[in-house]
Design brief:
Blueprint: H1 2-10, H2 40-51, E1 59-60, H3 73-79, H4 82-85, H5 97-114, E2 118-119, H6 126-141, E3 145-149, H7 154-164, E4 170-174, H8 184-190, E5 195-202, E6 224-229, E7 247-251, E8 267-271, E9 283-288, E10 294-299, H9 321-359, E11 373-377, H10 383-387, E12 391-392, E13 395-396, E14 409-413, H11 420-432
Parallel strand pairs: 1-12, 3-4, 3-5, 5-6, 6-7
Antiparallel strand pairs: 2-8, 7-8, 9-10, 11-14, 13-14
Helix pairs in contact: 3-9, 5-9, 6-7, 9-11
């Protein structure tokens, strides 16, 4: 007890209840009232009874990084196999041929999806993958300025700042224009001989499919081009390899991974072959064993546990092997035609959302094509009213970007699951509210 109080005191707290101070008092209880003297079966029954009081089955119009998409049942079946579910990152990799092959297949699938030369064996999540990409750009050219769009969310910017802090790199924001796309003139004016990397997002933080990313390669000079993309959008949108990206990163949660209250996630990172020696993490290669049989090996293990620390490119201690397997299974099951269908359905539903909400008197912020996240002009706080009608949404832009002039901007998000009936229900609820 003394140790507990000491830890609480260190954190500026007085009692264990203070740990839950962020939970509103109206929903916080000191006891769930299970009672005493119950056997195991009775405890389970009581827990299920309490669980049934939770709100379920609400329509979900939340997104902006984590998305509710259809996951084929076969993905969960494959992940549940004990030889995968119980596997840890192989430190003696040649013993773990099955896991190594799954990582090799993941690398191959993602490289095709991104239209890039090489993919590493995964990162922690999309945001930290961006941080690693910025450090990789520094290793490529030794320069210290990074240009990022002013639509980048504060949480993503915070991770990026943490990753480049030790390198004393300078992060400079460039403008997104009134059409919701990159202001190429503003970006061009900020690129100089000290620019290490230009980061582009497609779709960007405003949810816009930004066609101006295709022009950045012509104005970036010697800077590395880092593209942060939505992997599902690549079923219908040109991949980063086709518009000159040196490094492409993404959050892979949408590729067969449930939302899971926000994690675990999957960081995707691909790059040009010219930069492979400056990449972080590890890469799985195909070789042959002493008997001439195909074998998979862990190669380019450039993390500090494997080589001299001064020569390491990162301290990544694990890959997201189970989640890469989910992504591989998802992409293999969907195929290129299935992925294209999901991407086009998402775009169709975002157009429908704009149409229906416009008819209800709520105008989209931009006329430009959106993907999943659609931003509307909405001055009123509507979330509580929607929740009372069984709808989750919308999300204020100011909760994602504090320093923004778009104070009345609110997001509603669609996926392939968001059909016309659900959008109509949202529109009618907003009319009433």
């Amino acid at each position: 007890m003394d140790e507990l109080l000491s830890m609480l005191n260190f954190m500026g707290m007085k009692e264990p209840e203070d740990l839950f101070s962020d939970v509103p008092g109206s929903v916080r209880k000191r006891s769930i009232g299970i009672g005493s003297g119950l056997d195991e079966h009775q405890v389970v029954e009581r827990a299920l009874e309490l669980g049934r009081k939770n709100s379920i089955g609400m329509l979900n119009f939340l997104g902006n990084g984590i998305y509710d998409r259809i996951i084929p049942e076969a993905v969960n079946y494959i992940l549940s196999k004990p030889e995968f579910l119980d596997s840890y990152t192989p430190y003696q990799p040649e013993i773990s041929q099955g896991m190594l092959q799954s990582l090799f297949e993941y690398q191959s699938l993602i490289s095709d999806l991104m239209a890039m030369d090489v993919t590493n064996a995964s990162m922690y999540d999309g945001y930290s993958a961006l941080g690693e990409a910025a450090r990789m750009a520094y290793r490529i050219n030794g320069k210290k300025k990074i240009l990022i769009p002013d639509s980048t969310y504060d949480s993503k910017l915070s991770v990026l700042k943490n990753y480049v802090w030790g390198l004393n790199m300078e992060i400079i924001r460039y403008k997104i224009g009134n059409d919701g796309m990159i202001d190429l003139d503003d970006l061009s004016s900020k690129i100089d001989d000290e620019t290490s990397a230009v980061v582009v997002e497609n779709p960007n933080g405003y949810g816009i499919l930004d066609k101006n990313v295709f022009a950045v390669k012509d104005i970036k000079k010697d800077a590395a081009l880092i593209a942060y993309v939505d992997p599902i959008s690549l079923g219908a949108v040109k991949p980063p390899g086709e518009y000159g990206a040196d490094i492409a990163v993404a959050e892979g949660q949408q590729l067969g991974i449930p939302m899971n209250f926000g994690g675990p996630l999957l960081g995707i990172m691909s790059f040009k072959m010219d930069h492979i020696r400056r990449s972080p993490g590890r890469i799985i290669g195909e070789s042959v064993d002493s008997n001439g049989r195909r074998a998979y090996v862990m190669t380019l293990q450039t993390r500090e546990q494997h080589i001299r620390r001064a020569k390491a490119t990162s301290n990544i201690c694990s890959n997201q092997a189970l989640l890469t397997l989910a992504a591989s299974a998802y992409l293999s099951i969907m195929g290129s035609s299935g992925l294209k269908k999901v991407a086009l359905l998402t775009i169709k539903h975002s157009r429908m959302l704009k149409e229906k909400l416009s008819a209800a008197g709520i105008k989209p912020y931009f006329d430009t094509e959106s993907f999943s996240d659609v931003m509307f002009r909405l001055n009123r706080e509507v979330m509580e009213g929607l929740a009372s009608r069984g709808i989750l949404g919308g999300l204020k832009l100011t909760s994602l970007i504090k320093d923004t002039s778009l104070r009345d901007a609110t997001f509603f998000t669609v996926t392939e699951k968001t059909d016309a009936e659900k959008i109509e229900k949202l529109a009618k609820a907003l009319e009433v509210i």
